[in-house]
Amino acid sequence: MRSTVAMSRDEFLFGALISSAHAGQHVFFRLFPPLIPILVVDFETTLWQLGLLVSVSMFAGGLFQAPMGILADRYDRLYLLVPAFVAMSLGYLIFVIAPLVGPAIPELHALGQVFTGPYLIMALGMFVVGVGYSAIHPVGYPLISANVSADNKGKVLGMWGSASKVGDSVAPFLIGVFIVVLPWEWILVGICLFGFAYAFGLYVAFRSGRYETRPPETADGNDSSAATQEGETDRREFLFPMIVVVFSFFFILFAGNGLITYAPAFVSGVYGFSFSIVGYTFEPASVANFYFGILMISGAISQLVLGAVADRFDYRTVLVTLLGTSAVALVVLAALELSALSLLVVFVLIGATQFGMNPARDALISDIAPAEFEGRAFGYIWTLAMVGSSVYPVIIGYIADTAGLRTSFGTLAVGALGGLVCIALLYSPRIYRERAPETARA
């Protein structure tokens, strides 16, 4: 068990600022899934084609994280962070205008499928959103390392991860509430305008000079260091554990992306809850987004708690415990017929475990990666994981179309179990050796 050190006021304020950026990123990245129950009717399309739009965004978001990580280790990170929000806002504006300009675009015929002009413009918009999304992780993690002490990294990573789930929950709540009185297009326009304003606010806050945004410089002016060289000498300090971590991401993202993409469709399609209050009727699509919001909020709250836990206990033990609990809860969700209250409880448990693991996961990666390589380490990991897992929404959507939503959600437990096995491998001294204190980051 590790000792604990209280956060300073400056660390807390920095944590709040960088966490707001992570929340904003997730608001934009998660705006599309809550729209799926609406768009599947408006555009008369299949779940797998809508899932493909999520895959396009994920693919772009993964593909560009490695180059963003390289840039983040070489240049002032502020000049990557601000344009990221501009790009995400612009991408959804392109998405909104797709029904207007799309008919002028010729249809695309591929693999026996027809992709209309509006659909192609929507795909372009989602690609731009993904490019903007790609900058936040490889910029955010090294910023945290540069401005927060090692003793408090888990707490700030808890704030950072919790904020992501707040963003994930804000998106469906915004859609669920405003869709009652506004078309979905105007909801997206309003959020995009806020995104442009937020980008300007970030620029002003970081330009105050209070926080370090520049990357560390190595003594010989290149990317090598004693820590990196030792990591190359003993592959158990960097190479082997990083390979295991990448494989764990593939499994964990299968469960996480399936939940985030199709949870609203699952609740709406399987349960179809609706209710009326003060003259307004909340149809199944709106109620489903409220459940989705609860899923994300539980993940947000749990990360605040589990971030502090990660500062006290072995990161691997925290991860294995949470992944095992998540797998059991996913099986219950898929196999049992639940009441409205029971469904809510299961969603809370899944959110708390599936997304509550993020602080321990990220702190583990930060420990493995040398400081001057951290931006690239996170960039490479997210690129490999997100590009490789970008097909997941299509696969899960296809299973839902052919075998039913319950069956598709049952397969998500495989992701949690696979992640558990990968993390458990890190207990082996043949795979992972923690860096000695003199070579570990201060």
Can you tell me about this structure?
- α5 packs antiparallel against α6 (117-133) and α12 (284-310) runs parallel beside α14 (340-354).
- The two termini are 18 Å apart.
- The chain has a two-stranded antiparallel ribbon with strand order 1-2. A two-stranded antiparallel ribbon has the order 3-4.
- It has 19 helices and four strands.
- The protein has two domains: 8-212, MFS general substrate transporter like domains (Growth Hormone, Chain: A, Up-down Bundle), CATH 1.20.1250; 235-434, MFS general substrate transporter like domains (Growth Hormone, Chain: A, Up-down Bundle), CATH 1.20.1250.
- It is mainly alpha-helical and 442 residues long.
Mean pLDDT: 82
Terminal residue distance: 18 Å
Largest sheet: 2 strands, antiparallel
- Text of the CATH class of the largest domain: Mainly Alpha
Strand order of the largest sheet: 1-2
Structural class label? mainly alpha
Q: What is the radius of gyration computed over CA atoms, rounded to a whole number of angstroms?
A: 21 Å
Keywords: Cell membrane, Membrane, Transmembrane, Transmembrane helix, Transport
Subcellular location: Cell membrane
Membrane topology: Multi-pass membrane protein
Domain Major facilitator superfamily (MFS) profile: 3-436
